[in-house]
Fold Glycerol-3-phosphate dehydrogenase [NAD(P)+].
Amino acid sequence: MGQASDGARGVAVIGGGAWGTALANAAAAAGHPVTLWLRDAETAARMQESRANARYLPGIGLHEGVRATTETGALAGAATVLLVVPAQTLRGVLGTLAPVLRPDAPIVLCAKGIERGSDSFMSVVAAEVIGPERPVAVLSGPSFAVDVARGLPTAVTLACADGREAARLSGLLSGPAFRLYHTDDVRGVEIGGAGKNVLAIASGIVAGRGLGESARAALIARAFAELMRFARAYGGRAETLMGLSGLGDLVLTASSSQSRNFAFGERLGKGATPEDAAGGKLAEGAFTAAALVGLARARAVEMPVAEAVAAVVAGELTVDAATSRLLSRPLKGEVE
Ligand SMILES: NC(=O)C1=CN([C@@H]2O[C@H](COP(=O)(O)OP(=O)(O)OC[C@H]3O[C@@H](n4cnc5c(N)ncnc54)[C@H](O)[C@@H]3O)[C@@H](O)[C@H]2O)C=CC1
Ligand SMILES: O=C(CO)COP(=O)(O)O
């Protein structure tokens, strides 16, 4: 599988963290030869030797069809490329590696974030780096890396502006327990993934501060309402946001300390500083919050929960002040 008539073969996964490793395992389980590209030679050698990723996915073996390497030449023949590095590094990593990739190999963007500074969605960053002609897709949905890597049942969405390509890629990457639904709503899918990370931080704050499960349910519902407003203003479809990359991922990420974004918020709620709250782990929402709010303000989208998260993460507002601010907003109709 994964063999094109002109010799392009297999799947390349760029980024050897939790999600990159899990997706490499999933692609191998779907029958593809997989090249897992990392930047650090020592780590790649250790992964090859131990057949595991002890730092990011402890206790989970590397599928026999996955080869970890730092050789960029090994990416050159890949028929499909998954880009799985943190959102804020996507521009740099893609810029460095794009020249070695096949120009016709679709690049599947797997990071969930918005670029700070430029306030750009991932698909926009990719188009700026590689040009608008090369095929780009976005993969997002409720999926903890550890669940996917273990082969537990998981469903996500793959979006590509070319709907037929989206269907082809979702068939190619789906496996025994990893189901990819497809759509042509790229913007909707990337908004769902990036936005839910910011909003999950708020849910974690509510849990950490001990505000109760009723407050957390209300917060999630109101957070989803603002995510829908944002998507509407930026061209994402409502039905996409009500699906896996949106409601599905918000439910997962805003309900479990297994989520790094939720755990980040939980620690903030317990009094940690924004600097300490990540605990050395990647909490994408902390980087994306300001960009999400910037985009919302630019189109006059009301996002009080995201605003509160951005202010707390920036150290401009305490958790208690942010809570009071949200509770003292004027009462309004539920659907406005
Ligand atoms: N872990 C999960 O369950 C899921 C994560 N994601 C998304 O996937 C993206 C990556 O997340 P994880 O793999 O979980 O993070 P991670 O923190 O586990 O791993 C990040 C990896 O990227 C590498 N990296 C960082 N900067 C780099 C650079 N400049 N060049 C090359 N490699 C670089 C790191 O060395 C590390 O191997 C994030 O946007 C996240 O939101 C999406 C779905 C599930
Ligand atoms: O995106 C994820 C689940 O779908 C992973 O969430 P965290 O990055 O918060 O751990």
Remarks:
- Residues 194-327 form a domain with the N-(1-d-carboxylethyl)-l-norvaline Dehydrogenase; domain 2 fold (CATH 1.10.1040.10).
- The pocket of NAI (ligand 1) is lined by residues 15-20, 39, 56, 84-87, 89, 92-93, 110-113, 143-145, 282, 284 (CB under 6 Å).
- The radius of gyration is 19 Å.
